[in-house]
């Protein structure tokens, strides 16, 4: 279903018609149409999956080397046309061009890693057959699943889905991708460029449309569905996939914490907290939404973050620190969280509800925010951050772990950062820097609780898109063969004697 966006000949914007055949992606900075895309029906999604299934046999049979060559060629093509895709990411999300390029740098590194490491991680390997099965050769292998469905969000429209797409392709699957309705062009660009270097079969297809197109992908008979998006939609995706027992990988929202310990480099912590909270206008699943700072250094931290946050300016121009809120409905969520924090007794030391000026939101730093406020308990997904004082790091860990999400986290501490990190109930932690784990291709990425389950990136991310197959091969006749009706009387007794001698001590 890969298609090039037609000229803006046809219809109105997304949602302008009850049953539109096409929809427009818009530049959130200006409201201008970027391109029109088809709304694919359930029937068209099923056809895309059937085509991908035919391509899957060819792609799997290419083997690791054949796939690596092609994925490497795709990587080089992406690098060559980096400006073009950065401009498109920027147009569909509104983020500054430099941030789009930063996102692409990570994509390229991950694509390289996945292609390079797939064979080492997934190839057939011998394992010990154990005392009781000494006569058997045992091997384990990670085989492709077939067709993987990928549903992606708009906030990092190329980095987040490529965490699944690149790893699923490297593992030998073909992919049908449904991008967010806000960023369909990025998905189409990915499929078109891969088709340039892999013209033989459509190993990556894109279906575009709204939630119904995504739901159709869940019901299409794909062999696994990798979803990145909000927790609420993740639950719907899981329910749809349950109908056909389609396995799911869910990368959902977060409410990540940054902890500042008594001995932290406070200036570095403030700098990192600000980047973690405000970059990409706070529309980052692993963005810093809550800070817990130990009281010895709280005053200094608040002073530092206030000074820095007050200088940040959102806007549509390339020099802006961050862009607009991409999804218009999120603006009200952000405003309501700030209002609720203030109503419950929190204080704004930078900005306030007046900072919400759609499509932009200026930085908001809230302090002393009650723990039952929406700004503490729910994902805000805007350029806001709460800063609460705690007695010690134990209290910080307790409050961090009290939430329903468990995606990433950050610890600033000179003497015990890793020790504190291990106490956080999250999938990832950065010590003395922020978000670094997402940029290390070898590290698995994913969460617990309402942040979802399963892992993209790294060895686990490759294995996620495979079915493990275990094989034994009889090498010679066993001395004892208890698994036969002709085993004879004493065989099990002799086996028990061996078990007792070996394992009973
Ligand atoms: P949504 O949950 O709104 O949408 C995600 C995707 O699901 C979109 O492609 C959407 O299509 C599609 N969709 C909507 N309804 C259905 C349905 N019933 N069945 C199947 N698919 C459906 O998330 P956002 O796009 O708003 O992304 C922001 C969220 O993503 C945040 O919560 C953020 O934390 C999370 N996220 C998580 C990451 C992680 O790795 N853990 C990384 C990045 C973001 P459409 O857009 O057309 O409605």
From TrEMBL:
Q: Which CDD domains match?
A: ALDH_DDALDH
SUPFAM superfamilies the UniProt entry points to: ALDH-like
Pfam families given in the database record: Aldedh
Region Disordered, annotated ranges = 1-24
GO MF terms here are: oxidoreductase activity, acting on the aldehyde or oxo group of donors, NAD or NADP as acceptor
Name the source's superkingdom. Answer: Bacteria
Give the matching InterPro entries.
Ald_DH/histidinol_DH, Ald_DH_C, Ald_DH_CS_GLU, Ald_DH_N, Aldehyde_DH_dom, Aldehyde_DH_NAD(P)
- Report the residue ranges that make up the Aldehyde dehydrogenase domain in this protein: 19-471
Q: Name one GO biological process term.
A: aldehyde metabolic process
Q: Does the keyword Oxidoreductase apply?
A: yes
Query: Which residues are named in the active-site annotation?
Result: 251, 285
Q: Does the keyword Plastid apply?
A: no
* Family, similarity comment: Belongs to the aldehyde dehydrogenase family.
Q: What is this protein called?
A: Aldehyde dehydrogenase
**Source organism (scientific name):** Kutzneria albida DSM 43870
């Amino acid at each position: 279903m890969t298609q090039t966006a037609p000229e803006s000949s046809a219809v109105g914007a997304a949602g302008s018609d009850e049953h539109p055949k096409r929809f427009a992606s818009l530049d959130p900075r200006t409201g201008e149409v970027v391109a029109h895309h088809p709304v694919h029906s359930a029937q068209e999604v099923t056809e895309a999956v059937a085509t991908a299934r035919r391509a899957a046999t060819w792609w799997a049979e290419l083997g690791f080397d054949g796939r690596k060559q092609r994925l490497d060629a795709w990587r080089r093509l992406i690098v060559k046309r980096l400006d073009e895709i950065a401009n498109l990411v920027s147009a569909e999300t509104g983020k500054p061009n430099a941030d789009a390029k930063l996102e692409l740098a990570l994509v390229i590194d991950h694509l390289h890693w996945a292609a390079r490491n797939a064979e080492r991680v997934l190839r057939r390997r011998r394992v010990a057959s154990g005392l009781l099965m000494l006569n058997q050769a045992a091997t384990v292998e990670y085989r492709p699943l077939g067709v993987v469905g990928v549903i992606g969000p708009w906030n990092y429209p190329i980095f987040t889905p490529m965490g699944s797409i690149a790893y699923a392709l490297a593992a030998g699957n073909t992919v049908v991708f449904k991008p967010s309705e806000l960023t369909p062009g990025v998905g189409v660009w990915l499929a078109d460029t891969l088709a340039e270097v892999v013209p033989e079969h459509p190993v990556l297809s894109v279906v575009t449309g709204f939630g119904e197109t995504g739901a159709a992908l869940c019901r299409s008979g794909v062999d696994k569905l990798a979803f990145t998006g909000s927790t609420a939609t993740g639950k719907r995706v899981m329910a749809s996939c349950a109908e056909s027992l389609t396995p799911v990988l869910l990368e959902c929202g977060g409410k990540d914490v940054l902890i500042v310990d008594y001995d932290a480099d406070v200036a570095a912590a403030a700098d990192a907290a600000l980047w973690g909270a405000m970059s990409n206008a706070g529309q980052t699943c692993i963005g810093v939404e809550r800070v817990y700072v130990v009281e010895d250094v709280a005053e200094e931290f608040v002073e530092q973050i206030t000074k820095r946050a007050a200088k940040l300016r959102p806007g549509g121009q390339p020099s802006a620190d961050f862009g607009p809120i991409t999804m218009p409905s999120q603006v009200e969520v952000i405003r309501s969280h700030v209002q609720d924090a203030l109503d419950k007794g929190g204080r704004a030391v930078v900005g306030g509800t007046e900072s919400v000026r759609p499509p932009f939101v200026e930085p908001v730093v809230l302090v002393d925010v009650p723990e039952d406020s929406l700004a503490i308990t729910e994902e805000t997904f805007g350029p806001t951050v709460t800063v609460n004082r705690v007695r010690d790091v134990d209290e910080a860990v307790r409050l961090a772990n009290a939430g329903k999400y468990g995606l990433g986290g950050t610890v600033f501490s000179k003497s015990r950062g890793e020790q504190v990190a291990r106490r956080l109930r999250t999938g990832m932690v950065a010590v003395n820097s922020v978000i670094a784990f997402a940029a290390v291709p070898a590290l698995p990425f994913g969460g617990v609780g309402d942040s979802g389950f399963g892992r993209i990136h790294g060895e686990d991310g490759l294995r996620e898109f495979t079915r493990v197959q275990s094989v034994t091969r009889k090498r010679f006749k066993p001395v004892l063969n208890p698994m036969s009706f002709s085993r004879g009387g004493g065989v099990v007794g002799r086996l028990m004697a061996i078990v007792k001698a070996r394992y009973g001590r």
